[in-house]
Amino acid sequence: MKLKHTRSEAAFERAQQLIPGGVNSPARAFGGVGGCPVFISRGERQYLFDIDGNRYLDYVGSWGPHILGHRHPVVVAAIQQALATGTSFGAPTESESVLAELVIAAVPSIEKVRMVSSGTEATMSALRVARGFTGRDVIIKFAGCYHGHVDSLLVQAGSGALTLGTPSSPGVPVGCTRDTLVLEYNDVEGLAAAFKQRGNELAALILEPVVGNMGVVIPTPEFLQACRDLCTQYGTVLIFDEVMTGFRISYGGAQAHFGVTPDMTTLGKIVGGGLPVGAYGGRADIMNTVSPVGPVYQAGTLSGNPLAMACGIATLETLKKTNPYAELERKTANLCEGLSQICRVKGIPHTVPHVGSMFTLFFNSEPVTNYQVSARNDTARFARYFHGLLERGIYLPCSQFEANFVGVEHTDENIEQTLASAEAVLGEITGI
Ligand SMILES: *Cc1c(COP(=O)(O)O)cnc(C)c1O
């Protein structure tokens, strides 16, 4: 049964000599589960193939973008067509307006939008615009939310309400995080207290409207509404970081799903369909502070890149036309109910939150509502579960603190096969 990984092991050995940790983004390095990352040779629909020739059913989807699966024919054709005209011009193209129009039509809060090249760039720019627009400096983020590797947002999670942020990465000057308040997700009282104390200094409140980056954590309706109401009351810009949830939870993102409209929204992942695209947008009066209309500077040599625009346009048009969201939700719910059933029978403490096609199987007996609870997950059990499934040809995110994604190419048979494998692996772990 054991899969062969000798080529991946050699490739990882070589990469570690050349690239810090052998990876260009730390989440890929299997740090949370141990062992050697598998090196990929190609993707096809819902499957990944590694350089040793093993095939995996993919629940990572490049950490979000591949809701349509790998190498969707419409997407491939669009990129090929764009490639025939050139890769980058540093001058406007009509494709930028096509993607902007699709984004504005889809996302309730966005009246004007600027394209960038990553989610990090999107959140960094949105914060600058919110600060420029309000003339204020202080921002609120929530423990366990990830908004890219922006200095002012890389703040240590976990400490209590209103604790001034301390940098969680060496290299981030204390000055960069002095104006970042870190609060606990889903804590309406803590949020209200923070606004009462500092509301008139607050430029922005930024959050993942469904968290994916401490595993899937779902907001209570009261919490999302409190975010909206307090921001309105104090003139603070409410930013939904929908880099993960945009075009994932619904075509209009979490804001369309929950019916709560922020002032600004950041996008990434699916909006680029697998090429590097991020975007930030919002109310026209706020976005008109951006250069060259207004004084807030933000720029990018490769922003609005024609290949990336073509890939994003093909992805969004396909999603719009096929509207797969109800079907995605059905498959995801079946998978999560099945996992929960297996855990119940084997007496494994667990909870499996899911929204749309995002889910996490937490090895935790409590409902995971915030970072403090998520920090109590059984990560050792997760590591065994992860490797057990990998050896059975199922590729999950290599950390307990990540969202898993179901895509349009996942079949009901794939879901059944995943459940059978999960049952076998959890059986080995528990001896039940
Ligand atoms: C992935 C992610 C980011 C960062 O995007 P990058 O493209 O990796 O820079 C920001 N916010 C959220 C919610 C994300 O999931």
UniProtKB/TrEMBL annotation:
It catalyses: (S)-4-amino-5-oxopentanoate = 5-aminolevulinate. The keyword Thylakoid does not apply. SUPFAM superfamilies: PLP-dependent transferases (SSF53383). Gene3D superfamilies: Aspartate Aminotransferase, domain 1, Type I PLP-dependent aspartate aminotransferase-like (Major domain). It holds the Pfam family Aminotran_3. Homodimer. The gene is hemL. It comes from Planctomicrobium piriforme. Belongs to the class-III pyridoxal-phosphate-dependent aminotransferase family. HemL subfamily. Pathway: Porphyrin-containing compound metabolism; protoporphyrin-IX biosynthesis; 5-aminolevulinate from L-glutamyl-tRNA(Glu): step 2/2. This is Glutamate-1-semialdehyde 2,1-aminomutase. One of its GO terms (cellular component) is cytoplasm. Keywords: Cytoplasm, Isomerase, Porphyrin biosynthesis, Pyridoxal phosphate. GO terms for biological process: protoporphyrinogen IX biosynthetic process. GO terms for molecular function: glutamate-1-semialdehyde 2,1-aminomutase activity; pyridoxal phosphate binding; transaminase activity. It comes from the Bacteria.
